[in-house]
Design brief:
With 104 residues, the protein is an alpha+beta fold. It has one domain. Helices cover 28% and strands 20% of the residues. The protein contains three helices and four strands. Strands 1-2 form a two-stranded antiparallel sheet. A two-stranded antiparallel sheet has the order 3-4. The chain is globular. 29% of the residues are buried.
């Protein structure tokens, strides 16, 4: 499986073995449970760079709903501007924006 449609309604690319879910900690086992690049914030403002799923509707990628807030829009913009950036880079930028009051 190369991608799946997540709760955000977009195709989310599979990251492959060695990655873990930002929500529940499950690891990609390369057989029936996978980890995908998510990159959205939930209603509590928590950013999820990676979410897990089985490709058939079970897993965090289908359950964690995007908030469509300013922080969620910023996360999507950062992912578009830095598609190859490690998750830590996007997380760091969001934390910096949050610290300076960018989402109030």
């Amino acid at each position: 499986m190369k991608s799946t449609k997540g709760a955000n309604g977009k195709d989310c690319k599979r990251l492959g073995k060695g990655h873990d879910c930002s929500c529940c900690g499950s690891r990609d086992n390369d057989e029936d449970f996978f980890v995908f690049r998510a990159g959205w914030c939930d209603s509590d403002g928590v950013y999820y760079p990676r979410l897990c799923g089985d490709g058939y509707g079970y897993g965090c990628i289908y359950e964690v709903k995007p908030s469509n807030s300013a922080k969620d829009e910023a996360a999507q913009l950062l992912l578009d501007l830095m598609p190859d950036e490690a998750d830590d880079g996007v997380v760091s930028m969001l934390e910096d924006l949050d610290y300076i009051g960018g989402f109030e």
